[in-house]
Amino acid sequence: MNSVVEIKHVTKRYGKIEVLKDVSLTCKAGKIYGLIGRNGSGKTVLLKSICGFVLPTSGEVRVQGQQVGKDVDFPTDIGFIIESPGFLARESGLQNLMHLASIRGKASAEDVRQSMYTVGLDPDLRKPVGKYSMGMRQRLGIAQAIMENPNILILDEPMNGLDNQGVTDIRQVLKQLKASGKTILIASHFQEDIDLLCDEVYEMDAGIIKRKKEG
């Protein structure tokens, strides 16, 4: 099984502060990887480095064989939620996703509609996103992450704001995506999500990564 994401001895410094310390991690297709750790442990910075939003001070990040920041600035085969999804408050969920889909032209109108159905949203709902509940906004963020059918998903706290039914729904979506061969990285504070979903689990503490569970 080929490696899809390879993080090799990555260190990230902001001034004198090391937020990632010699981090190495390999992720393969068809598996879900979990990241746990307290706020400030380095989880989000690590996820951002995979997406190309943060470049390491030393070491390298490779996505599908290409070095991020050298061969490619932003890997295109990644869907992500990192921090709170930002949407146009006065427009509907469908309008928001259609705007975003038009940027790269990879997702058709039907792809966008299907992604909303997948996460339990009605694409024909005209309610503006500004009047969405937090859980609905989170579902919309996940729809955005999957609408272009990426092979890699980077999800930072994907269950934030979801009620019990929402959590159940999104867990099922993630299991289906894993079964279709996707590579998924999840950072979560919810231990149950980590236990139920993840094949391998890594703990981050003060920028250092340690394996906790191997599937």
Q: What do you see in this structure?
A:
This protein is an alpha/beta fold. 31% of the residues lie in helices and 29% in strands. It has two domains: 12-77 and 151-215, P-loop containing nucleotide triphosphate hydrolases (Rossmann fold, 3-Layer(aba) Sandwich); 88-148, no CATH class. It has six helices and ten strands. It has a six-stranded mixed β-sheet with strand order 6-7-8-3-9-10, with helices on both faces. A hairpin with a 2-residue loop joins strand 1 (3-14) and strand 2. Helix 2 packs across helix 3 and helix 3 (109-118) crosses helix 4 (134-146). The longest helix is centred in the last third of the chain and has 16 residues, at 164-179.
Please supply descriptive tags for the structure shown above:
single chain, 215 residues, alpha/beta, Rossmann fold, six-stranded mixed beta sheet, four-stranded antiparallel beta sheet, 6 helices, 10 strands, 29% strand
**How many helices in DSSP terms?**
6
Radius of gyration: 17 Å
In terms of per-residue confidence, which ranges show pLDDT below 50 for 5 or more consecutive residues? none
Strand sequence of the main sheet, in spatial order? Answer: 6-7-8-3-9-10
Shape: globular
Q: What structural class do you assign from the helix and strand content?
A: alpha/beta
**CATH classification class of the largest domain:** Alpha Beta
Q: In the CATH scheme, what's the topology name of the largest domain?
A: Rossmann fold
Beta-strand proportion: 25-35%
Mean pLDDT reading: 94
- Under CATH, the homologous superfamily of the largest domain reads P-loop containing nucleotide triphosphate hydrolases
Main sheet attributes: strand count, strand direction, barrel closure: 6 strands, mixed
CATH architecture of the largest domain: 3-Layer(aba) Sandwich
Instruction: List SSEs in N-to-C order.
Output: EEEHEEEHHHEHEHEE
Number of separate domains: 2
Helix content: 25-40%
End-to-end Cα distance, whole Å, is 14 Å
Query: What is the β-strand count?
Result: 10
